[in-house]
Amino acid sequence: MARTALTRDEVLDTAAALVKEHGPAALTMRRLAAELGTAVTSIYWHVGNRESLLDALVERTVADLGTLRPRGADPAARIVSVAVLLRRALRERPHLVAMVHERGLTERMFLPAQRALVHEAHEAGLRGARAAELVRAVQFQVVGHVLVERNRERAPAQSPAETDLWAADAAAGTAGADPALAHALAAPVDTDVLFTTSVRALVTGLLAGPATPGPSTG
């Protein structure tokens, strides 16, 4: 027996879960109705047709990325927290983020995070070009790291793998004067730690002094 009580939020929640797990192609009105235990006509009444539903999911994704809240005792820590939260949000929603990009709303999606970074840059004493440099550098670091992670996950299995190559170097003693380096590179990559370390170093450097070269006086 088809259910009678249904809300728009419930439709969007279920549709978002389908897209997150299987991609936009898996989102059909018939499949969504089956997941919800309702009739297709009920879904149309709440969200319109499939294109309207996809538009609503895009708008919701943009809104979700506007809820990131910096955390930390000082501007540097809060900037790093924005980067960590943004990376996590992008990693958790790859298909939804791709839909946002396809609809030309990527810049709007990143605007709340940029505003949060601007606020923290001002709190740290940066203004003008230096503040803009920090905002863009952090954003590019986040997006670049996410893209590298996804490419590594999608890449065919490598044989020998990087870890195997460095493990062989460590075992053979051919790592020069730094066998500890070979052992470290032979270990699996902790991408969470690597990201936090790299973005913290980036932020520390940008807050320490101007990185943008001034006009030539020669």
What overall form do the CA principal axes indicate? flat
Q: Can you identify the CATH class of the largest domain?
A: Mainly Alpha
- The arrangement of helices and strands along the chain is HHHHHHHHHHH
User: Can you count the beta strands?
Assistant: 0
Largest sheet, if any?
none
Q: Your description of this structure?
A:
The protein has 11 helices and no strands. It is 71% helix and 0% strand. It is flat. It has helices at 8-22, 29-36, 40-47, 50-64, 75-92, 94-102, 106-123, 128-154, 162-172, 179-186, 191-208. It folds into 2 domains: 8-61, Orthogonal Bundle (Arc Repressor Mutant, subunit A); 75-208, Tetracycline Repressor, domain 2 (Orthogonal Bundle). The N and C termini lie far apart (82 Å). The protein has 218 residues and is mainly alpha-helical.
Summary of the model, kept short:
The chain has 218 residues and is an all-alpha fold. It has helices at 8-22, 29-36, 40-47, 50-64, 75-92, 94-102, 106-123, 128-154, 162-172, 179-186, 191-208.
What's the arrangement of secondary structure elements?
Layout: H1 8-22, H2 29-36, H3 40-47, H4 50-64, H5 75-92, H6 94-102, H7 106-123, H8 128-154, H9 162-172, H10 179-186, H11 191-208
Helix pairs in contact: 2-3, 4-6, 5-7, 5-8, 5-11, 7-8, 8-11, 9-10
